[in-house]
Amino acid sequence: MEGAEHLDELDRRIVIALQGNGRASWTEIAEQCGTSVATVARRGQQLLRDGVVRVAVMPDIQHGGESDLFILRITCAPGTQMRVLGALSRRTDMRFLGLVTGAYDILAELNVRKEESLHTRIVNEIQAIDGVERCNTDLTLNTYKVAHDWSQQFGVGVDQKRAVEVHRCAPSHFDPADHKIIDLMAGDGRASFRSVAAALGVNESTVRRRFETLQGRGCIHLVTLVPAPALGFESEIILDISVAPAQLDSVARKLATYQGVRYVAATLSHNALMCELILPTTQDVFEFTNGTLGQLDGVLGWTASVVLLVVRRGFVETPWWHKGLSVPSRPDVPPAGPSLDDLVPSLDGASLIVSPVTGALSAVSPGAPVPESGGRARVRGC
User: Fold this and answer.
1) What residues contact 108, with CB distance under 8 A and at least 6 apart?
2) Per-residue confidence (pLDDT) for residue 375, from 0 to 100
3) Within a domain: residue 185?
4) Number of structural domains found in the chain
5) Is residue 350 part of a domain?
6) How does DSSP assign 50-76, residue by residue?
7) Start and end of every HTH asnC-type domain (predicted)?
8) Residue 255: which residues within 8 A CB-CB, separation 6 or more?
C-alpha cells in the first residue's frame, strides 16, 4: 500500500490540523498542537516540501459545465501498470486514479462534459495507451457521499450531516478572474493571497473576497492530501456492492453515515453501488464487512479491491506517487535480465529456452535441438 513515510505524533497532529483547515496559520496550528510556533512551522513546511502532504484547491466537478462521471476499471498487460498510470496521470479529467488489486489493475474516475465525446476519450485515447488490454466503463448515476481528504476520519473541519450532501455548481458561479485564482492555487492551497494578487495584478483584498465567496458557496474545496499509511490507516478498500434494486437508495444512505466510508455512489452496472472504505486495520475491515455491511438489508454481495497507490484524488496529483516508479531492489534478489522486448529485435524467429533450475534465458536458432531440461517459448513475431 502507498506511502512509506512514517510520521511521529507531532507530525500527525499538524496534518490533522491541516485537515480541519488547510490554510490555518502556523500560530493557529501550534495552539492546537500545544507546541511552539517555530517548531510547528519548521515541521509543517518540511512535510509540504517533502511531498508527504499537499494542500490543494479543488473546484466543484460541475464548474466547467454539466458533466458525467464514468468509472473506469482498466486491465493492463503484465508489467505495464506503472507505465499506464504515468500516461493517465497527465490527464486533468481524472478525478481519481489509483493502482488496485483484484480483477483489474487500475481504477479511475473520468469526468466528461456533456458536449464532449465519450467515444474519443475511451476508444481513441485511453484504450490506445500502450499496455491497456481492457477498459470496463461504468456510468455514475448518483453520488451519495464523497470526501477527498481525511477530515471525516478525524472528525475535524466537517459537519457529518453536510458530508452526504452534494453541492451542484454551475459555470455561472465563476468568472475569468475566479478561474485564474483557482489555477494559481490548485497545486498550493496555502499560497498567500498577497502572492496570488501580485501574480494577477489585483488587490489582495479582491483575491481574499473572491476565494472566500467561492469556498462559502461550495464551489471550491480545500483538501489536504496525505498517504493513508502515514496516518496509521492500513486498509484502503474499494467495494463493488450488489444490492436489491428496491433497496439501493436506503443501503447507500445508510453506508454514507459511517465514518470509515469515504465515498458512496450508485452506478449503472449490476453491482449498483461503489464504496470506498478506509479503516485503521484489517481487523476493522473484517468487523465492518461482517458486522455492518453483511447485515444491511438489501445487500446481496460484494467484490473488493485493495488500493495500492493513489495517483490522483479530487483531480489533484499526489506528490508521493512517483516514488512507486522506482522501488529499490531487494538485496537477496539478483537483478533482472533483459526483457523479451529487449531480445526480440535480434532473436526474431528463434526460441527461448528457460532453465527450470535458474530461470535463465538462452536462445536457440530455428531448427536447432532443444535441451530436454528446458522449455521452449517462441519469440513474438515469428
Assistant:
1) 71, 72, 74, 88, 94, 96, 97, 98
2) 47
3) no
4) 1
5) yes
6) TTS-EEEEEE-TTTTSSEEEEEEEEEE
7) 7-67
8) 144, 145, 261, 264, 273, 275, 293, 296
